[in-house]
Amino acid sequence: MPARQMSEQSLIGAFETPPQDAARAFRAALEALARPGTLHGIKGGQAPAPVSEAAASLLLTLCDPETPLCLMGAHDTREIRDWIAFQIGAPIVGPAKAMFALGTWDALQPVTVFPIGTAEYPDRSTTLIVEMEALSQDGAQLTGPGIETTASLSLPALEPFQMNAMLFPLGLDFYFTSGTQIAGLPRSTTVEAN
Amino acid sequence: MSDYNFAYLDEQTKRMIRRAILKGIAVPGYQVPFASREMPMPYGWGTGGVQVSAACLMPEDTLKVIDQGADDTTNAVSIRKFFEKTAEIAVTEKTREATVIQTRHRIPEEPLKEGQILVYQVPIPEPLRFLEPRETETRKMHALEEYGLMHVKLYEDIAKHGHIATSYAYPVKVEGHYVMDPSPIPKFDNPKMEMAAIQLFGAGREQRIYAVPPYTKVVSLDFEDHPFDPSKANHPCDLCGAEHTYLDEVIIDDDGGRMFVCSDTDYCAERQAMGHRGRLSPEAAE
Questions:
Q1: CATH number of the domain bearing residue A22
Q2: Per-residue pLDDT for B1 more than 80?
Q3: What ipTM was estimated for this complex?
Q4: Site from A33, A58, A88 to mutate, B interface, most B CB atoms within 10 angstroms
Q5: Mean pLDDT score of chain B, rounded to an integer?
């Protein structure tokens, strides 16, 4: 059987200068997670549609052959799998084994199937990259580590994040991506309706 | 162009460290295991801090490195040179100009602000290690928030000395859950840990990374009748006259003469430049 040809698109879209671009992207990701409710620019990665530049850059920064990745919904296409195989090398897995997961909020449901870590190793939990139409600093009210008083973020839901926070120190960590913007929501954040 | 990959480490190693840092941020005070690499310096010289710094640095950063508050000691100078060579970044001795500050055993006197990252070098990350040598057990103790042993240790201090004698690496409780070793900073610095900057801790030999996000609650352990006391030497700085800083005691002659000086050299120099004088300032001595 002839080998299936990889799409040409999978060969492009890496960082131009990987060490420097990844360093800048990581700092955006670090600030985003350390200060929930703040928006940061992250750019340089280009994956096939519908993956946003922010999500592609985050994958290039954090994922490699050691990080099982779960693609959900419209983000699980042959083109995207090819791109990840060539650019990142992360094994594509189901939710139960995922270290990272990528998809829209609806496609990632139910989020309860992702590992939340164990009492002795709470770090062994999935980081979800949630693709959003847009990000803004309004909506749910956030309090907790990284937030001086309160912050706001346009979360796609309320209850799942409240349930997640109750699992602390276990739980999932979230990145929200849209265009070249990124926001973070660690499990330590308390989420309330505004 | 440098002959090294940017910031020395290879990209896969940096990704591994970055993932550990992010999980550390998500679970404040929890020690995330990471595959610490051999660095071109011996363990105990800040290999953990250097790896965390290397994973954080970007080309636009300005790095400051201090060792016990001083910018000009061997450890600080060589780490600063290391990153000048391998990352070609700007360096400074000024706390407020730095975006990344790697520190051994001090928090700068000047309050840190948003946008700054403080990287601690940590020798023994496990606060319970000298009470319980088995990693399997301390891990369970953290999982169960079983910190009675630590309180017993502090109580024994009181029983023996009349007060809590632990004066550095004073254990803190982070965000009401994990008890954490703040690295061997003097307990004088503990109250500063609730700050606007991101705090990252790297223990190279012990292969652990942990973090305290900005504005996170960091409480020094104590008892109602023996509240935490961030004590300091009852003396002003002999060079800049500051009465609110952490001081080093320096023997200055063979007759037991001594002086107290700010351990934060940048802060002290800046105060002297502003005209503050202490008991042994060159002008005052004349």
A1: 3.40.50.11310
A2: no
A3: 0.97
A4: A33
A5: 95
